[in-house]
UniProtKB/TrEMBL annotation:
<dbReference type="InterPro" id="IPR008972">
    <property type="entry name" value="Cupredoxin"/>
</dbReference>
<keyword id="KW-0732">Signal</keyword>
<keyword id="KW-0479">Metal-binding</keyword>
<dbReference type="GO" id="GO:0046872">
    <property type="term" value="F:metal ion binding"/>
</dbReference>
<keyword id="KW-0186">Copper</keyword>
<feature type="signal peptide">
    <location>
        <begin position="1"/>
        <end position="31"/>
    </location>
</feature>
<protein>
    <submittedName>
        <fullName>Copper-binding protein</fullName>
    </submittedName>
</protein>
<dbReference type="InterPro" id="IPR050845">
    <property type="entry name" value="Cu-binding_ET"/>
</dbReference>
Length: 185
């Protein structure tokens, strides 16, 4: 088996290949052990051709411009995310447990100098932060943005998971920078 890095994306690629080969059902993305959960269906990266609507998300210091996002099961949504704040912010789709574990990883990023309050040091995000783990922040369900930057995520939602969107930069989630994703059938 290839020697994949220990990031969520590497496990996602491997899981997607295996599941896609074995099943004809839509492939789901699963949280990695590094995010504290295994086999939790949080959805999957979507295709631009399948997007049914676009949701614009604005991040400021320390809040999102909406508290709830409503989506339908199996809907593919394009998120256009903009950081209008003065600090680095994250938009991350996951469960509450995934966010709690990811906050520890984000703290490590700050401790290792990969993340300042207003700057991302991409070169430092590739260094080993322990046990071969890097924090390149390249997961398909998340973007980390410096002030004034924008990004997009295309995501297909599952039928039945309690999801949140959150900023896991240290202190931001605790200050209320999170919201619920409501799944409708």
């Amino acid at each position: 088996m290839p020697n994949f890095k220990t990031s969520f994306v590497a496990r996602l690629v491997l899981s997607t290949a295996i599941i896609g080969t074995l099943m004809t059902a839509p492939v789901a993305s699963f949280a990695s052990p590094g995010h504290g959960m295994e086999n939790i269906n949080i959805g999957a990266p979507g295709k631009a051709a399948d997007v049914t609507r676009t949701i614009k998300i604005t991040m400021e210091d320390n809040f999102f411009d909406m508290e709830t996002i409503e989506v339908r099961a199996d809907e593919t949504v394009k998120f256009q995310i903009e950081n209008k704040g003065e600090f680095v912010h994250e938009f991350n789709l996951g469960t509450a447990a995934m966010h709690a574990n990811h906050q520890k990883e984000m703290m490590m990023m700050m401790e290792h100098g990969a993340l300042d309050a207003d700057k991302i040091h991409m070169d430092k995000m590739k260094m080993d932060m322990g046990n071969g783990m890097t924090m390149e922040h390249d997961d398909p369900n998340s973007v980390l943005l410096e002030p004034g930057k924008t990004a997009e995520i295309i995501w297909t939602f599952p039928a039945d998971t309690e999801l949140e969107f959150a900023c896991n930069v240290p202190g931001h989630y605790e200050s209320g920078m999170m919201g619920k994703v409501r799944l409708q059938s």
